[in-house]
């Protein structure tokens, strides 16, 4: 076991961005044993469970459907969500949430954002005392406009120092195939962020840390909305100039919004902002990009939802984000146009020419 001084030095180094092998090793040794639970067996929950298991943790994944849990445990596959991917032997699954959470030292949540509150209410008494709770979700609650960490804090009634969020350019299938990528883990407690980041690090997945929870969460939410816009113009048939313009101005909207709520602008220029934005906007693996592309091809909102095998969080987040933006006087013309396309009041072909709401020249 490392000394308190060496562990604090490692945590300080991580906080400054100097994520050295020695610093990670010190914190990882301090955290062992690492029995972790992941709630949610969709593509991202299963992928992150794989990341954790291949980083050395013993992982139990909660799957709502018994047949999914059985396949993961016995065949080391999840063909519904990660076809063709072999899962590590240290990853098991259970359809019993009690079994999944028993003895967990860290708990990771990967359920649809709009069901988070009811899921937390059901497991509140089962989460081990003092275990960090980590949000893998990128959405805001429609009824309240709360970020996922705020819902967790409310429903579990735990100190925010035990809550962390993970975000970044993290397309599930690419990571499941062990393609190298990075993420950021954020918590109000740098020690919690560091312990979680150490657990969620392996040879192909590197987790950095920060303490800007607001910026990290809003980056993950807002990039989904811009990705829907990119999907729309892609579906219409517009080219790279149009998409580059929307990505760039979209990042400006994201930053202005997040900063108005207390985020740091540099967080939006990092993995949770620009990094995630690029990946989500440019990849056909992105559910939000796919949803937008279907809208651009002329499908109605209801038809898009029915065609999607998994939740596209951006679709549910448009309305609450615009309401929050109005509360702070932040102008978000691209997101507003996405809302109009969803409502059927704007022809998808007209989204790109209307990057601003005024014809007067503006500073960039």
From TrEMBL:
<feature type="binding site">
    <location>
        <position position="44"/>
    </location>
    <ligand>
        <name>NADPH</name>
    </ligand>
</feature>
<feature type="binding site">
    <location>
        <position position="138"/>
    </location>
    <ligand>
        <name>sn-glycerol 3-phosphate</name>
    </ligand>
</feature>
<feature type="binding site">
    <location>
        <position position="138"/>
    </location>
    <ligand>
        <name>NADPH</name>
    </ligand>
</feature>
<dbReference type="GO" id="GO:0051287">
    <property type="term" value="F:NAD binding"/>
</dbReference>
<keyword id="KW-0444">Lipid biosynthesis</keyword>
<dbReference type="Pfam" id="PF07479">
    <property type="entry name" value="NAD_Gly3P_dh_C"/>
</dbReference>
<feature type="binding site">
    <location>
        <position position="287"/>
    </location>
    <ligand>
        <name>NAD(+)</name>
    </ligand>
</feature>
<feature type="binding site">
    <location>
        <position position="65"/>
    </location>
    <ligand>
        <name>NADPH</name>
    </ligand>
</feature>
<dbReference type="GO" id="GO:0046168">
    <property type="term" value="P:glycerol-3-phosphate catabolic process"/>
</dbReference>
<dbReference type="GO" id="GO:0046167">
    <property type="term" value="P:glycerol-3-phosphate biosynthetic process"/>
</dbReference>
<dbReference type="InterPro" id="IPR006168">
    <property type="entry name" value="G3P_DH_NAD-dep"/>
</dbReference>
<feature type="binding site">
    <location>
        <position position="64"/>
    </location>
    <ligand>
        <name>NADPH</name>
    </ligand>
</feature>
<feature type="domain" description="Glycerol-3-phosphate dehydrogenase NAD-dependent N-terminal">
    <location>
        <begin position="36"/>
        <end position="192"/>
    </location>
</feature>
<feature type="binding site">
    <location>
        <position position="276"/>
    </location>
    <ligand>
        <name>sn-glycerol 3-phosphate</name>
    </ligand>
</feature>
<dbReference type="GO" id="GO:0008654">
    <property type="term" value="P:phospholipid biosynthetic process"/>
</dbReference>
<feature type="binding site">
    <location>
        <position position="287"/>
    </location>
    <ligand>
        <name>NADPH</name>
    </ligand>
</feature>
<feature type="binding site">
    <location>
        <position position="172"/>
    </location>
    <ligand>
        <name>NADPH</name>
    </ligand>
</feature>
<feature type="binding site">
    <location>
        <begin position="287"/>
        <end position="288"/>
    </location>
    <ligand>
        <name>substrate</name>
    </ligand>
</feature>
<feature type="binding site">
    <location>
        <position position="287"/>
    </location>
    <ligand>
        <name>sn-glycerol 3-phosphate</name>
    </ligand>
</feature>
<dbReference type="GO" id="GO:0006650">
    <property type="term" value="P:glycerophospholipid metabolic process"/>
</dbReference>
<dbReference type="InterPro" id="IPR036291">
    <property type="entry name" value="NAD(P)-bd_dom_sf"/>
</dbReference>
<dbReference type="GO" id="GO:0005829">
    <property type="term" value="C:cytosol"/>
</dbReference>
<feature type="binding site">
    <location>
        <position position="223"/>
    </location>
    <ligand>
        <name>sn-glycerol 3-phosphate</name>
    </ligand>
</feature>
<protein>
    <recommendedName>
        <fullName>Glycerol-3-phosphate dehydrogenase [NAD(P)+]</fullName>
        <ecNumber>1.1.1.94</ecNumber>
    </recommendedName>
</protein>
<feature type="binding site">
    <location>
        <position position="313"/>
    </location>
    <ligand>
        <name>NADPH</name>
    </ligand>
</feature>
<feature type="binding site">
    <location>
        <position position="288"/>
    </location>
    <ligand>
        <name>sn-glycerol 3-phosphate</name>
    </ligand>
</feature>
<keyword id="KW-0963">Cytoplasm</keyword>
<feature type="binding site">
    <location>
        <position position="168"/>
    </location>
    <ligand>
        <name>sn-glycerol 3-phosphate</name>
    </ligand>
</feature>
<dbReference type="InterPro" id="IPR013328">
    <property type="entry name" value="6PGD_dom2"/>
</dbReference>
<keyword id="KW-0560">Oxidoreductase</keyword>
<feature type="binding site">
    <location>
        <begin position="40"/>
        <end position="45"/>
    </location>
    <ligand>
        <name>NAD(+)</name>
    </ligand>
</feature>
<comment type="function">
    <text>Catalyzes the reduction of the glycolytic intermediate dihydroxyacetone phosphate (DHAP) to sn-glycerol 3-phosphate (G3P), the key precursor for phospholipid synthesis.</text>
</comment>
<keyword id="KW-0594">Phospholipid biosynthesis</keyword>
<keyword id="KW-1208">Phospholipid metabolism</keyword>
<feature type="binding site">
    <location>
        <position position="138"/>
    </location>
    <ligand>
        <name>substrate</name>
    </ligand>
</feature>
<feature type="binding site">
    <location>
        <position position="43"/>
    </location>
    <ligand>
        <name>NADPH</name>
    </ligand>
</feature>
<comment type="similarity">
    <text>Belongs to the NAD-dependent glycerol-3-phosphate dehydrogenase family.</text>
</comment>
<feature type="domain" description="Glycerol-3-phosphate dehydrogenase NAD-dependent C-terminal">
    <location>
        <begin position="212"/>
        <end position="351"/>
    </location>
</feature>
<comment type="pathway">
    <text>Membrane lipid metabolism; glycerophospholipid metabolism.</text>
</comment>
<keyword id="KW-0547">Nucleotide-binding</keyword>
<keyword id="KW-0521">NADP</keyword>
<feature type="active site" description="Proton acceptor">
    <location>
        <position position="223"/>
    </location>
</feature>
């Amino acid at each position: 076991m490392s000394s308190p001084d060496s562990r604090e030095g490692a945590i300080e180094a991580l906080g400054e961005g100097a994520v050295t092998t020695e610093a990670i090793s010190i914190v990882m040794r301090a955290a062992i044993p690492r029995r972790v639970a992941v709630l949610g067996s969709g593509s991202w929950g299963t992928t992150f469970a794989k990341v954790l298991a291949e980083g050395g943790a013993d992982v139990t994944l909660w799957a709502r459907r018994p047949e999914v849990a059985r396949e993961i445990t016995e065949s080391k596959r999840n063909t519904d969500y990660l076809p063709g991917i072999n899962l590590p032997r240290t990853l098991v699954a259970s359809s019993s949430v009690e079994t999944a959470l028993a003895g967990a030292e860290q708990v990771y949540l990967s359920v649809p954002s709009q069901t988070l509150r009811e899921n937390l209410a059901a497991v509140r008494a089962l989460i081990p005392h003092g275990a960090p709770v980590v949000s893998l979700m990128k959405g805001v609650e429609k009824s309240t406009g709360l970020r996922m960490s705020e819902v967790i804090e409310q429903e579990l009634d735990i100190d925010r120092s035990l809550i962390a969020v993970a975000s970044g350019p993290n397309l599930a299938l690419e990571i499941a195939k062990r393609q190298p990528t990075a993420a950021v883990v954020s918590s109000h407690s740098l020690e919690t962020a560091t312990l979680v980041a150490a657990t969620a690090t392996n040879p192909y997945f590197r987790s950095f840390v920060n303490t800007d929870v607001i910026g990290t969460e809003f980056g993950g939410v807002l990039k989904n909305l811009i990705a829907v816009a990119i999907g729309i113009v892609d579906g219409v048939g517009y080219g790279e100039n149009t998409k580059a313009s929307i990505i760039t101005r979209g990042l400006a909207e994201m930053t202005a919004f997040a900063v108005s709520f207390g985020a740091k602008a540099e967080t939006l220029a990092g993995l949770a902002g620009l990094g995630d934005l690029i990946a989500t906007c440019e990849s056909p693996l992105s559910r939000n990009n796919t949803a937008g592309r279907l809208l651009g091809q002329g499908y109605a909102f209801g038809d898009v939802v029915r065609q999607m095998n998994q939740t596209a969080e951006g679709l549910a987040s448009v309305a609450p984000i615009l309401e929050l933006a109005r509360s702070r006087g932040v102008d978000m013309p691209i997101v507003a146009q996405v809302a109009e396309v969803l409502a059927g009041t704007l022809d998808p072909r007209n989204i790109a020419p209307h990057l601003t709401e005024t014809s007067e020249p503006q500073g960039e």
